Amino acid sequence: MELNMDGWGSNEKYPHALGEPGTSINRWYLKLKSELMPYTYSIAEEAVSGMPMIRAMFLECPNAYTWSAATQYQYMYGPYFLVAPIYQATQTDEAGNDIRDGIYLPEGSWIDYFTGEKYEGNCILNNFAAPLWKLPIFVKNGAIIPLTNPNNNVSEINDGVRIYEIYPYGKSAFTEYDDDGISESYKRGEGVKTDIESIVDNKNNVTVTIHPTKGSFVGFVKEKTTEFRINVTAQPKRITAQVGGRKVKLTNVASRDAYIEGENVYFYDKTPNLNKFATPGSEFEKKVVTKNPQLLVKLGAEDVTASATTLRIEGFRFTPEDRHRITAGALSAPVAQVTTDYIEAYTLKPTWNQVADADFYEIDFEGMLYTTIKHTELVFKDLTPETSYSFKMRAVNKTGTSDWTEFSAITKSDPLEFAIRDIKVESTAASQGRDGIKRLVDFVESGDVWHTKYGEKAVPFELTLDLVRVSQLDKFHYLPRTDAGNGTLLKGKVAYSMNREEWIEAGAFEWQRNGDVKVFSFANQPTARYIRLSVTEAVGNYGSGREIYVFKVPGTESYLQGDINFDGKIDGNDLTSYTNYTGLRKGDSDFEGYISNGDINKNGLIDAYDISVVATQLEGGVGTRGTEKVNGAVEISTSKKIYAKDELIEIEVKGIDLSAVNALSFALPYDQQAYEFAGVELQHMGEMENLTYDRLHSNGLKSLYPTFINVGNKKTLEGTTNLFVLKFKAKRKLTFDLKLVDGLLVDKKLNTHKL
């Protein structure tokens, strides 16, 4: 909410921009953030060499459920806070109040930070109330949270006070870290660490020990007041404290004000109100947000480096009332099923009858317990198509649970099973937004619309889809904007290609202006890697769309161009194979069969283009942004025409006005009775690999194939320069008559220029 950057939405993001209650709520959370600074700084120090501050659930709780996408909308903030933001509208009312489904609580017990309600983990919460002011935050039982005074900036922090909020449970520990917060002295070890431990024994007595602070830094304040905020549900029987083995006399005060003003005091705060920072006079100021009781203890200032501080609480209780189990009475088992209308490829939605006296429902699914379900339906997402799933369900109230109801359902087949993924797309028209044209092929239909640049006429323009793999094409679906507004494509032509150079027309499209899915079917189901849409008419002369899905023929296999070894990947082994096959032609005995698939541009020759398809993907691939299209010429010449027997013939190969040349090749047929190849002398070829091959074809003819390729992202050849010298030995007296044929220049985008 503090961001106010262009491109992040049309409304302001300043804390005060939305007025009340937004201003009060924002102030509250900003103050909470400031109070958490010692905790935040401590987990930041841990992140230098250990776990990050913001932790995906699988980092803290690795299991099959967290490894899936199921917990993508929640995270751990350090080891103790679980945060589950409201990322979508589920049951929003006019005031902005909502609920949150699908909150995964790992094993252990968890406390709602704002109410004190306790939940046992290893389950998934649903229907979690999230009024406008409430971010779902859970604290792990056993948490030790260092705090400071609420402030507007770090200069207002009171360095003479240390505060610890604790949820005693079993045995737990935390290390607080601090340094000067300004310089890089921490790199030299200038900083302090304080170990805090909390232990609950079998008699419900709590012992909190703050060990002496170790280390130092410039400006460190040793004399500090110590405050404890112990979360409880009943007033303890006895509270004692010691500093360095010396007993501290504590006084029980009757009010929060007396506690604030006092020293060596404690106060049982039965109803802590968390809403302390609302705008005076605002309606939100009247809102009371009460959590569980807290025992507040404050000890006078002591040298925290000199000795340990110990707090002992006898008769500790933290047993929050279950606010979800209210009704008493026997429960019947729900009648549950997944009807045909609620079965999809990736989702199932069980429904059931309302059970009398039930407070909520639970579903056991795939080893996870989905609990606190207060409606009579629940959607299960991210399932596998054509798979049978089993469910167990029961009703729950204060008395107990009903018997389980068991049922099952089978998901449908995937409508996108044969849709080609990982497509790359380019547009000759500029796109709006950071993600641009990628939005058109990212398999996200909702809230993810591609649009050409606002205010600029786009039509006519071309969309070129690189399918990455060669596929037998069946059809493609174009999903326009649901409102069929600006940019909706109406007319154009479709073509396909194997190499982006030679295009075959597939037909034209003329679509009605509406939000329906548009389908273009390929006659004869051709095989191709590239598809081009030449758009000649669109609404408002813009271009837009939610998605384009390209479908291959069901049951067919796609393959990578250049994967000449057919191992499903492009690697150095493919380049090695191409090195051996350079110059191989259609008609050669080795060409037919799998080698012919390596002739990607289908010109009957393994040349620089075919090898470039592999080489541009190796060593991290090439950078193609802003690259020019290949151009130029290559000439060959000799110093004379007549050569005597055994004389060396040097053929100068020169590049003329070269631009963006990433690879080149040509053929130099010669009479093996007159010429004998002697070698290549490189002159100005940069870092190109020399794959020149002197080949004897199956028909008895001999040709030299000078071939040079950049592997990975290397500098291209530019300008006019001598490239290399080809050397032959004259086997008899001859007149030089060799001619360059089948010449080809290739750029990083695999555009070609014939010589």
UniProtKB/TrEMBL annotation:
GO terms for molecular function: carbohydrate binding; hydrolase activity, hydrolyzing O-glycosyl compounds. CDD domains: Dockerin_II (cd14254), FN3 (cd00063). It holds the Pfam family F5_F8_type_C. InterPro entries: CBM2/CBM3_carb-bd_dom_sf, Dockerin_1_rpt, Dockerin_dom, Dockerin_dom_sf, DUF5110, EF_Hand_1_Ca_BS, FA58C, FN3_dom. GO terms for biological process: polysaccharide catabolic process. Residues 334-416 form the Fibronectin type-III domain. Residues 405-553 form the F5/8 type C domain. Residues 557-627 form the Dockerin domain. This is Maltodextrin glucosidase. The lineage of its organism: Bacteria, Pseudomonadati, Bacteroidota, Bacteroidia, Bacteroidales.
